[in-house]
């Protein structure tokens, strides 16, 4: 059986790219009869060196804009449409050799068998236009990239087309129904490598990140700051200073430099904040943290929350996140409303960091939730099953 994943920027990383990478590894390890192809404009070393993966490189402007050190927005704005057009043409002329084609993110191509919605851009843009600050509202109406992605979503959800539509969470499925009038879709969650993301009690890791044993560490991980609620975390930390001693805010992610610098000055938190930039060994950050706090205004799934839970880290999740489905407040994590984020963050962070709760039990319950529902073995089997059904092939026992 042949399966093809289409996604630009595999080397650049990001949530979608990480999902594809994890599924690819599990397919290679566990399925003998699956021939896997990945179409992108760049690849990680792992993919180019892996004999079990066929890589098809589609040209885009990514190399040029990166060499010019262009802002990321301009980089994506130019590279994504070029990639979409050329990838679509390639698939059209090579359809038989590619088998079941998965379009990851709706904006990667316009011909496919299955579209995986890792988010609903229509929902996010609509929210910005209605509730955002004045400048955000203007940007939401004028942004060419937003219009481009929304056009891709419209085209790839036309009713009389034959592709299957899959959302990464029930939350995203609801958005597709509301904003794009998708009446029939399935859900395949993202997953977690539970062997990689597990509790690590190595005390030396705290020294590596300039943390002491007494520090109470709040972790924020994201590649954007507005939608992920970074300023709310800073504001809450400033208010907690009078309540709890030795609090540190550990921040990791790209494109956050200016925001972190401005908020450190605005809230007078220079000594309490450790900014690491983009990190590859993200599992180490969970190991040194007491709580993960990323109060997203909206998150289609929230892979970072699942990873933290798998690492037995108490996790705060907003009600507008796909992972909210799995959170039982105070049992395996903390579920807060976005209606009054500042108040809810203050209450819950104070309880977690003050030692009033059994954080170890909550962390363990969180890991068990992930193991039982979100392991990559289970998620990968669902991808293979959908491909089999798409090809009208009887499902057989093809796992090694």
Please give a quick description of this structure:
The protein is an alpha/beta fold. The chain is 45% helix and 14% strand.
Helical percentage: 40-55%
Estimated structural class: alpha/beta
What share of residues are in beta strands? 5-15%
Largest sheet: 7 strands, parallel
**Straight-line N-to-C gap:** 15 Å
DSSP, total strands: 13
Oligomer: single chain
Q: Can you tell me the residue ranges where pLDDT is under 50 for at least 5 consecutive residues?
A: 392-400
- Strand line-up in the sheet with most strands: 3-2-1-4-5-6-7
Instruction: Provide mean pLDDT, rounded.
Output: 90
Structural shape? globular
The helix/strand series, from N terminus to C terminus, equals EHEHEHHHEEHHHEHEHEHEHEHEHEEHHH
Number of helices: 17
Q: In angstroms, what is the radius of gyration?
A: 21 Å
Protein model, in words:
The protein has 400 residues and is an alpha/beta fold. The chain has 17 helices and 13 strands. Strands 3-2-1-4-5-6-7 form a 7-stranded parallel β-sheet. Strands 10-9-8-11-12-13 form a 6-stranded parallel β-sheet, sandwiched between helices. Helix 12 links the parallel strand 9 and strand 10. Helix 6 packs antiparallel against helix 7, helix 11 packs across helix 15 and helix 14 packs across helix 16. The longest helix is centred in the first third of the chain and has 22 residues. The C terminus is likely disordered.
């Amino acid at each position: 059986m042949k399966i093809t994943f289409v996604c630009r920027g595999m080397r650049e990383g990001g949530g979608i790219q990480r999902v594809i990478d994890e599924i690819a590894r599990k397919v290679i390890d566990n399925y003998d009869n699956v021939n896997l192809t990945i179409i992108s404009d760049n690849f990680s070393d792992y993919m180019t060196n892996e004999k079990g993966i066929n890589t098809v490189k589609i040209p885009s402007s990514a190399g040029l804009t990166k060499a010019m050190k262009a802002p990321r927005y301009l980089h994506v704005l130019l590279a994504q449409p070029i990639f979409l057009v050329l990838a679509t043409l390639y698939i059209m002329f090579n359809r038989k050799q590619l088998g079941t084609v998965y379009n990851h993110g709706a904006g990667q191509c316009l011909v496919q068998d299955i579209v995986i919605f890792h988010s609903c851009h229509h929902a996010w843009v609509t929210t910005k236009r209605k509730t955002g600050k004045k400048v955000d509202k203007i940007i939401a109406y004028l942004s060419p990239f937003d219009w481009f992605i929304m056009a891709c979503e419209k085209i790839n959800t036309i009713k009389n087309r034959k592709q299957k539509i899959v959302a990464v969470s029930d939350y995203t499925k609801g958005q597709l129904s509301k904003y794009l009038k998708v009446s029939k879709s399935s859900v395949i969650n993202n997953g977690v490598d539970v062997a990689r993301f597990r509790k690590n009690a190595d005390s030396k890791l705290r020294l590596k990140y300039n943390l002491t044993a007494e520090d109470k560490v709040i972790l924020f991980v994201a590649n954007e700051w507005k939608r992920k609620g970074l300023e709310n975390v800073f504001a809450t930390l400033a208010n907690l200073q009078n309540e709890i001693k030795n609090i540190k805010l550990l921040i990791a992610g790209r494109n956050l430099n200016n925001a972190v610098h401005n908020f450190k000055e605005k809230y007078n938190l220079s000594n309490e904040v450790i900014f690491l930039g983009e990190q590859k060994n993200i599992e180490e950050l969970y190991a040194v943290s007491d709580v993960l706090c990323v109060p997203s205004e909206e998150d289609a799934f929230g892979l970072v929350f699942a990873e933290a839970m798998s690492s037995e880290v108490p996790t705060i999740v907003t009600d507008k996140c796909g992972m909210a489905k799995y959170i039982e407040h105070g049992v395996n994590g903390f579920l807060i409303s976005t209606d009054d984020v500042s108040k809810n963050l203050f209450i819950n962070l104070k309880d977690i960091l003050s030692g009033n709760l059994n954080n170890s039990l909550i962390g363990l319950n969180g890991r068990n939730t992930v193991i039982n529902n979100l392991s990559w073995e289970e998620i990968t089997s669902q991808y293979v099953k959908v491909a089999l059904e798409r090809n009208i092939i009887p499902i057989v026992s093809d796992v090694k």
